[in-house]
Amino acid sequence: MTALLSVHGLEAFYGDAQALFGLDFSLSQGEVVAVIGANGAGKSTLLKCLTGLVRAPREAIRFGGEAIGGLPPGQIVRRGLAMVPEGRRLFPSLSVEENLKIGGHAGRRGPWNLQRLYALFPILAEKRRSPATALSGGQQQMVALGRALMSNPQVLLCDELSLGLAPVVIREIYAALPEITREGMTVAIVEQDVTVAQRVSHRVYCLQEGRVSLAGRSDAFTREQISQAYFGV
Amino acid sequence: MLETILQGLLLGGLYTLFALGQSLMFGVMRLTNTAQGDFIILGAFAVIAGTALVGQAPLPVTLAVLPVAFGFGYALQRFVLNGTLGKDPLPSLVVTFGLSIVIQNLLLELFSADPRSIETGGLDTRGLALGGGVSVGVLPLIVLAAALAATAALQWLFARTALGRSFRAVSDDSEIAQLMGLDAKKVYALATAIAFVLIALAGALQGMRTTVSPADGPMLLLFAFEAVIIGGMGSFWGTLAGAMILGITQQIGFRLDPGWGIWAGHLVFLLVLLVRPQGLFPKTVG
Q1: Which of A209, B38, B56, B84 could be bridged to B91 by S-S, CB 3.0 to 4.6 A?
Q2: pTM of the entire structure?
Q3: C-alpha to C-alpha distance for A120 and B113, rounded to whole angstroms
Q4: Cα–Cα distance for residue pair B176/B31, rounded to 1 Å
Q5: B180–A contact, CB cutoff 8 A
Q6: What domains can you pick out in chain A, each with its CATH number?
Q7: Could you report the per-residue pLDDT of B240-249, keeping only the tens digit for each?
């Protein structure tokens, strides 16, 4: 199977500090892949490189056969790579519906529109005129997820969907995943909770200090193996 | 007293037009345009030069200057001011301050220091009797109407249109806005383009109402600044209210003693800064 998205030998820097050291990563069409690892392992940096928020060498990232590393974020989202950013980062002066509409700004066609999102998350239809930041954390995460889906991406990247949310809310958010992947959407999730990550994904990557320390089928690893890859002890 | 307040409101209309462009540029990109007043004067001189070229036709010339101002503002933001934006506000302050000096000297070179005005064929002296011995100028009424219309239009643009949504989104979080496919630099350029239409309109009306000379800019900037601060950053109705408060205060000051008008305005401005530094009606834009 050829990869839809492939990352080869990716190195990334914040100023002089190197965050990724020759990282390899790939996503095949229709896969759900989890990226786990401790704080500072480089998970968010990887997603930021993929979406153009952190500079990357052009050839290090290939998407649908084209080298896209270092392109501006707007060009990358138009090619079909959307991200739910860490900490949600909704636009506070926009209503729920306006946040969703701005997600559709990239103008890609596909199955996702306001009606379908409201069917998936009925609470958002009810609160569509509220300022986005007036919602609960879980509802805000639904808006952030919806905002990314509105661009009808081929690949959806989710950075820490469960950050700061109660377990019951996390379950509710992840319950939407099968509906999102129904038409074959490819999804990569960054997740701190290893159990959740293993349960929802086909494959898992574990990062440690900017390198891949473990990669393979999600059900192929024991807790000990993962904890070894996670902490390096 | 009633007449003083009425005159104050009319003056406030003018200050609203001075301030809206400032409020818009600050609201969208946190950019303080210290050349705001000089650009207003430049707008007035553009109309003066235009009327001299084509003979007396202030209205068509003003209407022709507005789209030119739009293009000028777009290009200025795209090729000059975008490069000054960032976490540090100093580069944009220094660059617009420099532009202010350039414009003043350019106008001095081209038009000399003589005060000039835009000939309106007597419109500036026509009055409207309101009964009870009170009468108001027709031109100030037009200015007030333009100010109200411009405020309402900006508020509508921000609250109801896709462009307004883009303005608010890049203002909130430009990184995430770019992740959504918005080009923040283009959005900024459009905001400045619209601000410059308002600046040119303010300049044309100022030139019709009174005389303008190349060194007038900094005073107008001060009034614009005071209106924006009194009203609270980021709200257009707040800017209108701030301009009205400034106008009324100045008129009351003038009434008490002709030397006190401007001074009374500064006093209220300082008072607001002391008591409510965030302004009277602060709000993120929209």
Answers
A1: B84
A2: 0.90
A3: 68
A4: 19
A5: yes
A6: 5-231 (3.40.50.300)
A7: 999 999 999 9
